[in-house]
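ZP: hey, is the adenosine monophosphate complex queued? I don't see it on the tracker
AM: it wasn't, my bad. submitting now with these inputs:
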Amino acid sequence: MKSLNISKTYTIIIGCGRLGAGIADSLSDQEQDVLVVDCNPGAFRKLSPDFGGLTKAGDATDLNVLSNLDICKATAVIIVTDNDNINIMVAQLVKGLAPRAHVITRLYNPDYQCIYKEQGIDTICPSLLSAREIDGLLANDREEAGLL
Ligand code: AMP
């Protein structure tokens, strides 16, 4: 792995699906240091041709993989694989390896959000965000129709 010239922020993104790749491209556009990890090297094709960060193929549940990411220097670790159990397990490992990093995890099931919050793990739940957004759009409709 090439070494990074770590400056202000160093963000590690675990999972290079549409969401992970989108966040990575956005941080790279802002000239932030970013490293994307995915167990499937083909996933890196989702990154923009202009992506200026680093990529690393590996299974993030493997402590050896995590330990080789300069993880203790990370200011933020964003965990967005497609599996809640993997995301939570990796988040807990990351918290142990990089206690000062801001850890943000995608969770499909919102049931345990508050437990993870207590552990210092921020969670993003797509179904809750979508419900809130749809609620807002419907409230706009009611407002426009003079029903509010
Ligand atoms: P998506 O479902 O499009 O958000 O993509 C999720 C990504 O997470 C895929 O590219 C998977 O290969 C990746 N992924 C799943 N499990 C792991 C893991 N244990 N370590 C690293 N990447 C993973």
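AM: back. The chain has a mean pLDDT of 92.
ZP: great, adding it to the tracker
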